[in-house]
Amino acid sequence: MAKPWAAAAGGIALAVRLTPKGGRDAIDGIEQMADGRAVVKVRDSAPPSAGEANDALIRLIAKALSVPPRDVALAAGATARVKRLTVAGEPARLIAVLEKIAAAR
Length: 105
Hints:
This protein is an alpha+beta fold.
């Protein structure tokens, strides 16, 4: 299965499929989409209006990866369910944490 993350300059790029108003804030594992792309499935309890769900996504990913929220940025997909994030930090450490999260799901 393809991985939804890749090392990038100064950190990683991460593909995410967000479900806003999902009832709880959680990372639900990795999903293979119909077009072959892999994404991290994330749900948050915030509504999609006024960027609240995106802000909640950034805080959730930052907490899961033990980085400050300022190190997580929305690179693409502000109004779409599938988003691309960039996370600043040591790529090997960030990828190791994501591998551990994926294995636990």
